[in-house]
Structure formats: structure tokens, C-alpha cells
Amino acid sequence: MNTTKKRIVFCDFDGTITVNDNIIAIIKHFNPAGWENIAERTIAQEISIMDGVGQMFRLLPASMQKEVIDFSISNVRIREGFAEFLNYCKEQQIDFYVTSGGIDFFVYPILEAFDIPKDHIYCNGSDFSGEQIEILWPNPCDAHCTNNCGMCKTTIMRRFPEEQYERIIIGDSVTDFEGAKLADIVYSRSHLTVKCKELGLPHHEYETFHDIINTMNAERKSTK
Asked: Which fold has domain 6-20+78-223?
């Protein structure tokens, strides 16, 4: 391991920093007609994440802004050890970025309790000014990605070249898999672990952020 490279973490939000998946929780809670079919087609990769999420939120009227935001924030549970992991990153001089397919109206308020610079948080935007809720996509795919991700994690990662950075990804879902292929180190759970096993991608499994701290400490000791 080349310790001269700057270590950088790209951490997913839904199902990683949080225990639950907020987008699905919001849509399930308000239960607009037709959402299940869109969700199934998105999971089956018949339509892109960008199309699927955009279509599901378009089923909700913008007049429900307060109810949607209040529910999304009150529904959240933070994964154990997250605050300690942020402190660990600071102590070890590891850059920490949130790369989230979530939406600004819940990602920013939830992360306000933690000392993360706003320009280290990448997520999707929202617009409540029309009839329906519109999701905005300020972080689209670059020329190297054709997956129509919406919030393209690999595009963000490519801004930190492998020659200069040891890139570490933490995630839980198939949306993290393309990023995992670019990473030097992968911390995975749930669907991401399954994907990594299927394709023989080296990874460390975790359930809490304490697990990640312990593995990182063990790795540093083994390289000394």
C-alpha cells in the first residue's frame, strides 16, 4: 500500500450512513398510485435510477413539501459509530466525502448535526415550485459513464485521480458497485457485498462504522 497517497473516503448515505433507505421510505409512506411498478422497473434496471426516482417523486404534489420533508427527517436512524468514524477520519487526516443518491431536502438537514463541509456533500436537488415534486440532478454522469446515474459516484471519484489518492468507498447497494470497481478499498454490506462476491471484487464487510475503524486500524498496523 502506497502511504504517500492521500486517503479519501467516498461514503454513501441511504442505507450506509443511515440504517434505512429514505427514498423508498418516503414513497412507501405517502403511497402514491403507481409507485410500485416504477420501483420494480428501476430495481430490475429496465429504467435508470435517474428516471425511476424522478418518476416516483413526480407522483407527489409539491403542495406536500412540508409533510414530505418532516417525514423524511423524522424517519431517519444514523448507523452506529458514524460520529466516531468522522472523528477518526479527522485524526488520521483522511478526506471524507458523502456521495449520495439521496435528495437535498433530507440529506443536508440530517448531516447538519455532523461537522461535514457542505462542499464535501454530493446529492441530488429538489424543486417544489411546480405542481409536482421535481428532482434535480446537479451531479450528472461524465463522458466515462453511460448509466444515467442521476448522482454519478464514479464521476465524483474520477476528480480525485488514483495516482494521487487512495480511494476508499463505503456503501450498501448496487448503485455503489461502479464506484467500488474504481476504489482501492471497498467497505460493503447488503447488496453491494453480494455484487462484490459475484464478480470477485475484494471487499471488507461491515455492519457499523466501528467495524470500519477496526479494519482500517488493523490495515495500518499491518503496513507499518
From this structure: Rossmann fold (3.40.50)
Locate the domains of the chain by residue range. Answer: 6-20+78-223
Cell of 188: 460493503
Using a cut of 0.90, tell me whether the model's pTM lies above it: yes
pLDDT score at 224: 62
Distances (CA, A) of 61 to 13, 39, 57, 152, 178: 25, 18, 8, 27, 33
Q: Nearest 5°: phi and psi at 41?
A: -70, -35
Interior angle at CA 14, CA 13 and CA 17, nearest 5: 50
Region 25-32: mean pLDDT is 98
| Distance (Å, whole) CA 185 – CA 169 | 6
Sheet containing strand 95-103, edge to edge, reads 134-136, 121-127, 95-103, 6-11, 165-171, 185-188, 204-205
Helix intervals (H) in 75-118: 82-91, 104-111
Rounded to a whole number of angstroms, the CA Rg of the chain reads 18
pLDDT tens, 148-194? 999 999 999 999 999 999 999 999 998 899 999 999 999 999 999 99
Average pLDDT over residues 61-79: 97
- Residue 72 neighbours by CB under 8 Å, 6+ apart: 22, 25, 26, 103, 105, 106
